[in-house]
Give the backbone structure.
Amino acid sequence: MFLTNEKKKHNSWQGTFYTRKWNDNTSIAYFEKSYGGKPLLKKINQVAIQNNLIFHSSMVDENNSEIWKTSGWDVVQRLNVLSLNLKNVKSSDEEVVNVESFISKKIPEIINLDHKIFEPYWQNSIAAFNETISSCTHNYLFIHREDKNPVGYGILGITRNYGFLQRFGILNKNLNFNSNNKIIWFHAVSLGEVIGSQRIVKALSKEANIFLTVSTPTGLRKAKEIFKKDNIEISYAPWDFYIFALTFINDIKPNLIVIFETEIWPSIINIATKKDIPIILSNGRISKKSYNSYKRFNYLVNNSFNKLSLVLAQSDSHKSRFQALGVKKEAIQTSGSVKFDITASSSHYFPEIDSFTKNKYILAASTHKGEDKTVLAAYKTVLDSFPDIRLVIVPRHPERSAEVNNLAKKYSLQTSIETKQIDSNSQVLIVNSIGKLPYLYQSAEAAFVGGSLIPRGGHNIIEPAFLGCPFIIGPHMFNFESIADEFINSGSCKVATDEKSLSTEFINILSSNDNALSMIRSANDIIDRNKGSLEKQVSAIIQILKREAK
């Protein structure tokens, strides 16, 4: 199985871990004893990084005890994993087999056993397994037994790490492009930008080959999920150093570069200009805070802004700031935000949380550290007026769920975490997975949209507006400045600054159905007035692409 018998030993308080050489290009990190799921997998991550490997994992236990992300620096591809609790499993009870020759025979056998493992989470397990297997060159199935019966299983996959090389502009892959089409390099920095730009990317992919880059692991994972059925190349963007950017551009040979919303890269812009490659800033926005920062170094950034071929600004205020920073007057237009061109997605039902959400509840969406305390304190006040109302909290980063749970208990609240057993009598449900917010917005009596009570800039408020959920924001919405202003000025949303005002706004919405309906109608009017940006921006981008093709 291995090229050599030589193995390297790694000691830590969690146990003993090994790496062995698989072939000339790949090694595998593995363990021989188990001392607990989460610390164990963290250590394997560290070993993988040291050996320039990517660690992948998909695991489930009989209680589906926890969903979490593998940790490590962003060279590690972090997947959502169903974590296996190994605390009571001895190494002698553990089988390790090659997936390719074994999974088709043994998985059906395990499924047929009467275990709680597979209800209701089997579909989640299959999806996680498939993602790991498709990502890895070598996969191992771990079957954990007690009294000769399987009590849990998991997959460990190892593949060579190319993500790190992509940061240096090295692709290590052949591009599967239509030779008759032009190439657009489209950059969306992180998760929010990937989601926000998906309809532009899909529309442009009908006209050109798309090479999509991101800067974060969450963005990469989401991009691969959204575009898995599209012929779109996806990778990390190179760091903005001249040699890395030049290597990358020389490899993909783009005819056009599109940057979504805010990223300004001096080296890439300079190289593209020298090579006569147009650069478009799509859905362009620049907050007052960012504008003031750029203005302090205007002598350094003015040249980069001046070289932009076209800026499609979200509003007139954004347009004025871009012009003040050096964008040519003839190279900028106000096109609105594509986020208003939202469409209804396929409805999803989540039976695992239905026992809780069938009750009336208020929602705290995409909360950050520093906001949960305010939300929980406000909820305690709301309970005085509405003793039966529940609270659902969705932390922006699911790994904070335990922290939020502990905080809620300090307020003497009964809590459940989604991926552990949910007590239908709980007052607070903490959702620690992604993809459920649309479902929760549709059913909530009212919502607070996080990232806004602290200076993080806020999150997308068009989604709750579109889904008919009256919502509250904090004062820090600088990433959605013009959008937030329009909602606030029309009375389509409420603003809270602290625990007292947040509880007051929740109580006002819950107390008056007329108030809630008025907010919803006004929000829908705003969305209807602002639709059409998608078509405008796609048309402008294609026009420049065709001009370059002549």
Notes: The chain is about 40% helix and 20% strand. Residues 11-17, 22-161 have pLDDT under 50 and may be disordered. The CA atoms of residues 246 and 403 lie 44 Å apart. The longest strand covers residues 149-160.
